Amino acid sequence: MSKQLYTLEFPVRCSPSILYEFLSTPAGLGEWFAEKVDERDNIFYFGWNGSFDKAEVLESEENSFIRFRWLEAPQNEYFEFGIEKSEITNQTILVVKDFAEKKDIKDQALLWDHQVKDLFHRLGN
C-alpha cells in the first residue's frame, strides 16, 4: 500500500524569520521536534530516546520552506515545513506536509498537532 501526501495548517503568531529558525536549524528543531538534533553535510540527525533517525535536506528557501527526506524512506516521500502569509488576515501560517498510509493519517495528524503545540509553546503562542 502506498503512502499519500497530506497537509496540515497551523496559524502562528510570530514572524516568518523567527519561525524559520525553529524549522531549519539544529538548535531550533531541538527545542520542539526531537530531544537532540545535529547536522553535518546537509544531513540532520534527530534523536529520540537514545536512537537517531537521519534526514537529508532536499530543498529549502529561507523564511519560506524546508523539505526533508528520511534516509530510509522512498525517494518520493518527504516531510516539509512551509511558511505562508494569509492574504486576508496577514497572519503567518505553518504548513506541514507529510506522507502516511491513508488509515494512519488521522493518527499522524494528531502527532503533528502535539509537536506543533510544543513549538508554539516555545514561541510564546
From TrEMBL:
InterPro entries: START-like_dom_sf, START_2. It comes from Terrimonas ginsenosidimutans. It comes from the Bacteria. It holds the Pfam family START_2. The lineage of its organism: Bacteria, Pseudomonadati, Bacteroidota, Chitinophagia, Chitinophagales. Residues 3-124 form the START-like domain. This is START-like domain-containing protein.
